[in-house]
Structures are given as C-alpha cells and as structure tokens.
Specification:
Low-confidence stretches: none
Radius of gyration: 18 Å
Number of strands: 0
Shape: elongated
Structural class: mainly alpha
Helix content: 55-70%
Number of helices: 4
Distance between the termini: 32 Å
Length: 76
C-alpha cells in the first residue's frame, strides 16, 4: 500500500506541472513561500525514499490517541 500511495503522490505532483499555467502556479508557490528551486525535486525524492518504518515512527510521534475525538452516529 505504501508504494501505491507514493505513486499517487508523485503522480499528483507531476500533474500539478501539466501545462504552462499550472507550472506558473507552482513557481508562484515557490516564490511566495520562499522555497528553493529544488523544493519539488527534493519533495519527490523524499516521498520515494520513505520507508514503512519511517511512516510508523512519524505516526507514533504525531498521531497520539489521547488527542483523538470519538464521534458516534446511531446507538453506542
């Protein structure tokens, strides 16, 4: 599943550069955010390099069950 998500994210990134107007919008993002010209290239490399262990480690750090909200619809 991780490989599928990596391909999906990479495909969306490539699609965001489809055509001159989309490419100019990406350039505006770089300029307005103060990012380097290599940002999208590095982003793509990082997405493709991440391992399932790293995803698990990050999720343990950022997804704490004590911060979750339970929502019940219907009978409990």
């Amino acid at each position: 599943e991780l490989e599928l998500v990596k391909q999906y994210i990479t495909g969306n990134l490539l699609h965001s550069f489809d055509g001159p107007f989309a490419t100019s919008n990406r350039l505006k993002v770089l300029i307005n955010s103060g990012l380097s010209n290599q940002y999208f290239s590095e982003f793509s490399k990082n997405i493709n390099a991440i391992s399932s262990g790293e995803v698990l480690e990050i999720s343990r750090e950022w997804l704490s069950p004590k911060n979750f909200t339970l929502s019940v619809v219907g009978k409990w």
